[in-house]
Amino acid sequence: MRIKKIWEDHQGRFNSTEPTDDKEITLWVEMKRLFEPNTDDTLWKHQRYIHDPLKWRLYDTCGVHHVSTERGIDIFMLVEKEYPLSKGVLTLMLVNKLLVEQHSEMANELLRKIFIQANRPRQ
Q: What is the pTM of this model?
């Protein structure tokens, strides 16, 4: 997978050096969120500020889905991973429906996974 290769390249680079400019820092933060979700990350902590309207898209060529809000919050997630999403955000995603170019098995599986996650009792 192309995104995984980019992550591995950047991970190796940033393990030995610090990101130097804003674009590198932004890329590093987003890639880290994509591959190593952490419940202490600011994005996951501030989910209560994510409200309707939002858009939920699937990019099936790279296996990434994307939630964006009008306030400028963007969450990129790998289809095969589970992320620390709140029940409220999961419900909003399902209510606003997944936008896809064409229906696929990946889209059906993602919808099924998000539905199950949204209906799971919280511990």
A: 0.75
**What token pair was written down for 54?**
């939002």
For helices 87-96 and 105-119, the axis angle rounded to 10 degrees is 140
- CA angle, corner 72, sides to 57 and 9, nearest 5? 70
Identify which of 37, 40, 123 has the alpha carbon closest to the alpha carbon of residue 80: 37
Whole-number Å distance between alpha carbons of 74 and 18:
24
Closest CA to 1 of 74, 81, 68: 81
Domain boundaries, the chain: 1-36, 49-123
DSSP 39: T
The tokens describing 9, both together, are 């390249």
Question: Can you give the pLDDT at residue 85?
Answer: 92
Query: Buried b / exposed e across 69-79, counting CB within 10 Å, b at 16+?
Result: beeeeebbbbb
Q: For residue 98, which phi and psi values (nearest 5 degrees)?
A: -80, 130
